[in-house]
Write the structure tokens for this entry.
Amino acid sequence: FAGAGPSVQSDLYALGLVLYEAVTATPFVGPRDHKFASVLNRDASDASLGGVDASLVTAIDLCLQADPRRRPSSVYGVAGMLPGGDPIAAAMRQGDAPSPSLIAAAGDRRGLRPRKATALWGACLVGLAVVMLLADRTFLFSQSSLPKEPAVLRDRAETIVERLGYRHDPATRWDGLEWDNRRWVRPGAETAAGETQTMAFEPTIAYWYRGGDARWREPPPLGQRWRLEPRPPSLGALTLTLDPTGELRDFSAFGYERRSAEAGEGVDWTEVFSLAGLEFTRFEATEGAQRVAHGDDGAYVWAGPDASRKRSVIARATVGGGTLRYFSIETSDLANGDMAIDAAGGAKPSMSLILSGLFVALTAVAALMVRHNLRRRRIDAAGTWRVAAAIGCGSMLAWLLESRHVWIADAALTSFWQWASWSCGFAAMVGLWYAAIEFYARKLWPHRLTAWSRVLRGELRDAAVGRDVLLGVVTGVSLVLLFQLDVLAAQTFDPARPFAVLPRGDTMLSEFLGFRRELGVVLSAMLDAIVLSMGVLLISLVARVLLGNERRATVATWIALALLLTLAAYEQRPFPLLSGVPRAAAIVWIVTRVGLLATVVSFFTTEVILASPLTLDSSAWYSTHGAFALSIIALLATWAWTTSKGNQRLFARRLLDV
């Protein structure tokens, strides 16, 4: 309508005019602007459309769209919508794999009926509300007390540094949040001495502070500390850890010589213990003192009560040159907590080892499949490059968003090249998986790639895309609810144990570090969702190739996923099968019945919600972080609801029409 030259879309508009007149026996007359509604979008009882196939009506409607971008992208799309015209089915009958462009153009373009789409959208919003209502009882963020925000804890840490006789240096300061796993152990685990652990404390979040090393690079993305900074700390730096209330839990200053002017000789143990919320007079020395490295004067060990938490603790300290160099508080019955966890799982395969083995096996299988496909020249090179480029660029963007960057040339360049190399390797791995499964998925299950192929081609306003996204969001919310039901069941049978939904690591804590990092967490969740979806599709494909039957392959995929999810939750859940089996069934349903795009969206929804500090306490300083994540999911569901309806109205006529 803008006087542009002929194109595929203009030809399709002309086709729509011919088909409209052939069906209705009247010429199509509409205003020549972009504001008119489709003439075909009317009451189904219209006599002029009586007996006309619904797919033909949809095809004519799309061809007559005023906006050329809303018309089918090619004649294949029109042919696929016409009664009896399915080029994808024809290609499959001949034993050929439909091309990616054919799948995108001729695949199903039907969205959802308005009332069905509205029902799913409403179910999604209700599900999000239920997730929020159960958050304080089921999520670790809510069960771990976080009364003070990081800025307050930073001031407290610098105050402690000064009170211990040291001088802090803001120019070399790094801080953040981490999981304090020393207070979490699975009940029933055995210690190194063979004793059974009979109690478990609530897992908590700790604040860490480090300063004094100008060469110290910031923590890597996702809120973690560098792997090169384990306990015990390195020389020349000052580090300390506080619990969420601001009480001292760990302190070290090996080789750190920035003493304050007011610092005196000797250590005031009453002062040190008070910073940890303990009474020094109630502690007794134990037979644990020994000489340590770095030229320190000696090491000390005390045992005593932590009255505020009603437990026994062990305090360890090291003094060098009359100055406190190291101080740590450990729970006495969990002093060997790491050993207890290892001993409990020693007879069982480690979950990380299982996942690593599965990753290596799947990657090896994918490499063989890619080699086979390359020889026969049947790889979708364009789609593979798009996916790999999106993963690589997304990884670099996540690094930019989630990292706290330091403007020191060598440190900045080192950090950049490290993350760039990781991003390239990550993109290559995902591209390898995609190239391995894409051809076989096109040949065996082209419907699983329809919406995904359109997204890769930028057709985001397609009704089928909206349909798959909406179904994916609903499935993702359902997966989160299954997590929460598992926790509630555990609390019902054994309310004394503080079971909670534990995130997959400390990668979620960067949400507390600012809005920019919240966006980075959301982006990382999307990248993880793509990888997980590729993995599920690859497992499904391997089962299909090995078993040769679609039904048996589906069952095998469900069993494999159920085992993986059960093993992943074994150390955290008392009834891992309770959520593992139905979650696996939901994942298999979404990947087999809907498609790859819906699977990605479902994993993305689950990751974002589980990464968020949800709470009903609006006075909590982190409540806005959880609300931000839920708002993203709600907006995504709303967009999908609007798109999935296409041009259909919820009601047959406007409410005010008489």
